[in-house]
Amino acid sequence: MGLVLLVFLGIIVVAIMWIVGIYNSLVRLRNQVKNAWSQIDVQLKRRHDLIPNLIETAKGYMKHERETLQNLTEARSRAMGADSIGEKIKAEGQLSEAMGKFFVVVENYPDLKASQNFLALQEELSTTENRIAYSRQGYNDQVLFLNNKIQMFPSSIIAGMFHFKEEEFFEIEDIKEKEVPQVDFS
């Protein structure tokens, strides 16, 4: 009788350790996703801070492009006001689209393109966009790890018991952003 009880207790201890191990790995992955998002958030804040300076520099040259500047300003405001990750992802996509239109319009103003202030701001923004892309890749990798763990058996059982939720990927929604730009030197 004592051996059966000892084996039973051993099985219970192993099962508890297994549950704790899976739970801890889910918590670690969830925290890595949060950390990866905070890295994106830092770069998005930097982007939001650069845009007003870019707009102010361009205003003097682009007197007839008020709508473009206003759209960019409004898109920035929506992006800064977004609360959830899903809302931020959507708002940042709209901001990227507005910035793309802004830079297309800038092409019509050679004096603006030659301005040292504008060039410096454009370079800062370009660097920030690269950092956002890098951070987005890291975030999406962490989301993939967490979502896989939540969906795969047997960790899916533990994830369900403790209400772990899948996270959203930071994807480009607008098909225009996915298209490869065409270069024309003619």
Compact description:
With 186 residues, the protein is mainly α. 80% of the residues lie in helices and 0% in strands.
Secondary-structure map:
Blueprint: H1 2-59, H2 66-81, H3 85-106, H4 110-114, H5 116-151, H6 155-161, H7 175-178
How would you describe what is shown here?
By secondary structure, the protein is mostly helical. The chain has one domain (33-177): de novo design (two linked rop proteins) (Up-down Bundle). It has seven helices and no strands. It has helices spanning 2-59, 66-81, 85-106, 110-114, 116-151, 155-161, 175-178. It is rod-shaped and about 90 Å long. The model has no long low-confidence stretch (mean pLDDT 89).
Please supply descriptive tags for the structure shown above:
186 residues, mainly alpha, de novo design (two linked rop proteins)
User: What value does the Rg take, in angstroms?
Assistant: 24 Å
Structural class: mainly alpha
Listing every helix as H and every strand as E from the N terminus to the C terminus, the arrangement reads HHHHHHH
Helix count, per DSSP?
A: 7
What fraction of the residues are assigned to beta strands by DSSP? under 5%
Number of strands: 0
The CATH class designation is Mainly Alpha
Architecture, according to CATH?
Answer: Up-down Bundle
Mean pLDDT: 89
CA-based shape: rod-shaped
Find the CATH topology. de novo design (two linked rop proteins)
- Detail the poorly predicted runs: none
Whole-number count of domains: 1
Distance between the termini: 90 Å
Specify the helix fraction band: over 70%
Largest pleated sheet: none
- CATH-wise, what's the superfamily? LemA-like domain
